[in-house]
Write a structure and sequence with these properties.
The radius of gyration is 19 Å and the shape is globular. The chain has no helices and 20 strands. Strands 1, 2, 3, 4, 5, 6, 7, 8, 9, 10 and 11 form an 11-stranded antiparallel beta sheet that branches. It has an 8-stranded antiparallel barrel with strand order 12-13-14-15-17-18-19-20. The chain is mainly β.
């Protein structure tokens, strides 16, 4: 027998099932929050990533605390079973509190039990932008079918590592909220590029098949101060390549052992025809090996009109002719 929860009293149902049932019973279905903040000086500075996600089929909630602090890679994981509460975004030692939707969010992680302690407030500096639904199917199976929300903001408070609390006062960063199916081990390639400039953020989510065929592109330019976002209608990944510790082009190989980061130029075309070209270089803030390929890179950026800023470039996937040509996917990849 299914038991109603408090959320079942609300007008939030979209299928004729009790929450948190989903329209597709898929083990890779999840809904998640992702927060990132980074040293405004970029370079080899600190970068912190914090997640909260729930998995209806597994009936569990979990959180990752990860990043690069004082040059060292950090990764921690906390989880709990749903029990009688499948909705509250909290696990033992960590929580997300939506103080005011799309305006203010509190992030907490207890340094006594989490790899990175957090006592942070995210405050929006742009409107939230909803990406359209994206889907990849292969052999009658769903590999990716998700919706996604992007938003830039500033962070205030502290993060703690190795017993030391470090103050954050206005660091810029990104948050997103996604839900749906994502079978990471069968996704050929996705790029999540989120660029923070003084006057706004430029972001894109871009998907390709292993041969480089484009499957999906969506994103926006969102001005600081809450102005109306402008959609990204085309994206060119340009000559972005893996580089080694000396900044020279390097092959990813089978596990990225010789890779230290990324370098290259990309181009965003906005609705109305304006194209913004961005040159960037940076280093791994959180490699995904050995769990997945690629990872999150902390970048310094310069636009073709002279603006400078910072960014997180996520390059990940299972098999791709440029980024992961020598990798072996555990399952068939389209």
């Amino acid at each position: 027998m299914s038991r109603p929860t408090a959320h079942d009293e609300l007008f939030v149902h979209q299928i004729p099932e009790l929450l948190p049932a989903t329209v597709s019973y898929d083990p890779h279905w999840r809904e998640s929050f992702f927060f990132e903040l980074h040293d405004p000086a970029a370079g080899g500075g600190d970068a912190v990533f914090f997640t909260m996600a729930h998995y209806p089929v597994a009936q569990r909630m979990d959180s990752l605390q990860m990043g690069r602090i004082d040059g060292a890679q950090v990764l921690g994981h906390r989880q709990r079973p749903y029990g009688d509460d499948p909705h509250t975004p909290a696990v033992p030692g960590a929580s997300v509190e939506i103080v005011k939707p799309f305006e203010e969010i509190r992030l907490r992680a207890d340094p006594a039990v989490c790899a990175i302690g957090l006592d942070l407030t995210f405050r929006a500096r742009t409107q939230a932008y909803g990406l359209r639904r994206g889907t990849i199917k292969h052999g009658g199976q769903t590999i990716w079918d998700q919706c996604h929300i992007l938003q830039s903001g500033s962070y205030h408070g502290t993060y703690t590592a190795n017993g030391v609390a470090r103050k954050v006062d206005g660091w810029l960063g990104q948050r997103d909220h996604s839900w749906g199916v994502r079978n990471h081990s069968r996704c050929p390639l996705w790029l999540w590029f989120q660029i923070q400039l003084e006057d706004g953020f430029l972001g894109v989510w871009h998907w390709e098949l292993q041969d480089g065929s484009h499957i999906y592109t969506d994103g926006c330019w969102a001005p600081a101060g809450g102005g109306e976002p402008t959609p990204v209608i085309a994206f060119d990944k340009g000559d972005v390549r893996w580089v080694d510790a000396d900044g020279k082009p390097a092959p990813y190989g089978t596990n990225g052992a010789g890779v230290a980061g990324l370098r290259g130029d990309v181009a965003f075309t906005l609705a109305g025809g304006r194209t913004i070209r961005v040159a960037a270089e940076g280093t791994f803030a959180r490699p995904y090996e050995p769990f997945h390929r690629g990872g999150l890179n902390l970048m310094t950026v310069r636009t073709d009109d002279g603006r400078v800023g910072t960014a997180i470039y996520e390059v990940t996937g299972a098999l791709h002719h440029r980024f992961f040509p020598e990798c072996k996917a555990p399952e068939p990849v389209p």
